[in-house]
Amino acid sequence: LRATAEVVGRSAERMTTLVADLLVYARHGVRPTREEELDLAPLVAELVEDFEASAEARGLALRSEPSAESLPACVDGPAVRRAVANLLANAVRLAPESSTISVATGGDANEVWIAVADEGPGIPEADHTQVFQRFWRGDHARAREEGRSGLGLTIVRQIAESHGGRVDLESDDGRGSTFTLHLPRVGSGETVG
């Protein structure tokens, strides 16, 4: 009975995540509804703290390299939180045991950025644009077994673009990946939407 309850619980969690991802995806192209000026540095620090337990459970080191300056952006805070959480969740899931995940933040006069780097399997260059397409899941059998929807990176891209930003990928097959979320800095002259 306990084993059945655990299976049902995991299935319910996967379905909840899928429904949430589909709702976010359905809002593609819709201007963020909760724009506020936020310093993204504390938001990122809090998310790193939130993922420390799951990283530790997998034998991973989660390192944060915070920016010495504030990272002001006019954003939908929950949406940006979801984008960064999706990047961290992917890194924690895919990084090999005993490896390191690094989170760095920074910015310049025009933008602020958040980078999540892992030492995972990497992504072949031929797949770099595909990873942001809806329902792309790489290893389909493993993705199905883990209950992944293939919407996480699509949602990250949509959130970045809806804020006038972008997400970049640096990766080589077998050498890990770095995803960098770029958002316009407050006062840079960029408009949200």
Plain-language structure description:
The protein has 193 residues and is of the alpha+beta class. It is built from five helices and seven strands; from the N terminus they run H-E-H-E-E-H-E-E-H-H-E-E. It has helices spanning 2-26, 40-57, 77-94, 140-146, 152-162; strands at 35-39, 61-65, 72-76, 100-107, 111-118, 166-171, 177-184. A five-stranded mixed β-sheet has the order 2-4-5-7-6, with helices on one face. Strands 1-3 form a two-stranded antiparallel sheet. Strand 6 (166-171) and strand 7 form a beta hairpin. Helix 2 packs parallel to helix 3 (77-94) and helix 3 (77-94) runs antiparallel to helix 5. The longest helix has 25 residues, at 2-26. It is globular and about 55 Å long. Residues 140-149 have low confidence and may be disordered.
Strand order of the largest sheet: 2-4-5-7-6
State the total count of DSSP E strands: 7
Main sheet makeup: 5 strands, mixed
Bulk shape: globular
Portion in strands: 15-25%
Number of helices: 5
Portion of residues in helices? 40-55%
Extract low-pLDDT stretches.
Answer: 140-149
